[in-house]
Amino acid sequence: MANPPSLGEARKRSVDNLQRLYTVVVSLAITELLKRLFHPAADAPKAGLSEWLMLTSFIVTIIPFYHGANRYLDATYVTGERSAKHGALMLDFIALFLEGILLFVLGLFASNATIFYTILGALFVFDAAWVGLTRLTTNGNESVASYVKWAGVNVVAALAVTGASWTTFFKTPEREAAFLTIICVFRTVYDYYSVWSFYYPPDADKDLMMFAAPRPAMPDLPSQGND
Fold first, then answer.
1. Burial environment of residue 4 by CB neighbours within 10 A (0 to 12, 13 to 18, 19 or more)
2. How far apart are the first and last CA of the chain?
3. From the CB of residue 213, how many other CB atoms can be counted at a distance below 10 Å?
C-alpha cells in the first residue's frame, strides 16, 4: 500500500500551483502590453520611441520581479534555505496574486504613459513592502540595514518615475520616457547587484561565482541487485 503524501510534499504542490498562477498572470501582462503597442486601435497612433522605451522599462522590471518571486518561493518552501512561519504561504499567495494583477493592469495602460508609470511606481513600493513582510513571516539571515537600503532605492525609484510622469519638466515624451527607462534599468541593476547571492547562490565548493550557471544534473545510475 502506498504511503500517503507528506505535508511537505503537499506544501510543495501548493507552491508549484502558485508559481504556475503567477507565470500565467505575468504572461498575460506581457501579451497585453505587446498587443497594445504593436496592434493598437484603428484610431491610435503607431508605436514610437517613447512606446519602445516604455516596453523596455516594463521588461527590465518584470524580469527581477518574476525571477525574485520564484526564487523566494523555492528557497522558502522547496529547498529549505529559509524557514517559513505558520500562515506565511497564504500571505505570499495574496501578495503575489495582487502583484500579478498590478502587472496585468500595467499592461492595460500601455497607451497612457502617466498612468503606466504611476502604477509602475506603485509596484516598486508594493514589492518593497512585500519583501519587508517576508522578513516577518520567514527566518532568513539578511541584515536589517541591507533591506532598508534596498527598500530605500525602490522607494526613491518609485518617487522618481511617478513624479517625472506627472510633471512637465521634460519637453518631449521621448525625453521623459528615456529618463524613466534609465531609472528602471538602474533599479534592476541595483536589485541584482545587492542580492546577487540570493538570485544565484554560489556553489558550496567555490569561493566566487563569476556568472550564473546551473549545475549539471547527476546522471541516473542503474540500480544494482544482489548477486
1. exposed
2. 27
3. 9
- The pLDDT value recorded for residue 205 is 47
Counting every residue, how long is the chain? 227
Per-residue confidence (pLDDT) for residue 41, from 0 to 100: 64
**Dihedral of CA 80/86/91/97: which sign?**
positive
Helix (H) or strand (E) holding 84: strand 83-84
Q: How far apart are CA 11 and CA 6, in angstroms?
A: 9
- Determine the Cα–Cα distance for residues 139 and 84; give it in Å rounded to an integer: 6
User: How far apart are alpha carbons 208 and 197 in whole angstroms?
Assistant: 10
Q: What is the pTM of this model?
A: 0.79
CA atoms within 13 A on the CB side of 18: 26
C-beta neighbour count of 78 within 10 angstroms: 14
Q: Is 99 exposed, middle or buried (0-12, 13-18, 19+ CB in 10 A)?
A: buried
**Radius of gyration over alpha carbons of the chain, in Å?**
21
* Domain residue ranges in the chain: 7-199
DSSP class of residue 220?
P
